Amino acid sequence: MSQSNAVALSGDALLQTPLFSPHNQLFLLNDRDAICQHVSGIFKPHELKPRQPGESISASMHHLRRGRLSVNRLEYGTDVHIDPARLDSFYLIQIPLRGSAAIRCGQHQFDSTPRLASLISPQLPLSMCWQASAAQLAIRIDQDDMAYHCQQHLPRSRDRLPCFDPRLDFSTAGGAYFLQLLNVFVDAVSCDQHPIQHALVQKQFESALLTALLYGASHDFSQQLDEQQERCVSPYFVKRTEEYIRNHLHEPLSIESLAEQAGVSVRTLYAGFRNFRNTSPMSLLRDLRMEQVHNELLRDAQASVTEVAFKWGFAHLGRFAQDYKRRYGELPSATRRFRHEQD
Fold it and tell me: Residue 131 gets which letter from DSSP?
């Protein structure tokens, strides 16, 4: 593997992200009790002490929330021991941007590095030792969001939460895929003008990150996902989903929310659309939203193509323009120009 590829598969790539700035710095402190209080407010109450008795503790933390995700950068100025017991109500992904942390989670003990993140499930006991100056990117995911997402892909999990292997290895295909998505997410959120600032796009990205964990990381439902057989599909839920999409085009929709409305699993929904419509639910959603863009450009010669595209959830303007031309035989700007000439 080349050096550039090695860096790309590591948390090192996130070290210089512009996402964290003075505007979202939560604190820069040299007081153990105050640090513990602030960090507890974002995560949960925990025990914090220096590894070497008598040493003072300093720390800095950045915090921002995008959609349902809490994204944080936390760094201690000395080696510290952190004991939150169990997280109870949330999952926590911790990616060292440099240095390392010793993780004890359930039956697992390992050193977390920029190439081996920790993925902590709420039901497992946790204690950690962080190196001084070993900044970490910490992403909090509410357990209710994970439970909902898992139920849409595996309905039999309704009464249980997935318990992940706490070692999230970026050298594996699943780990690398999640890190690639996360890099795109962080870069996008850093840009005020990026389409991800729109609710439609944000919802899709959150869904993609959780799906990447469910199918790319190891957990106690992995075998059920792999072995789940498609039950016989029936057109009723295809029609129900089509109607729901048409009535909620303006809302943030994900494949999971559509499956919930239809009362079937994500795989069954995909199979129904493939077998009876020769398409997918999300392709139908894109097609119907494309129609809305086309109609708006026909109605309003002064409309901004970019604003209308973003309004209907099309984040990649180049791809949008290509798909639009393939469907309507002209670029969206030509549709608007035609309307202007008619006026």
Answer: P
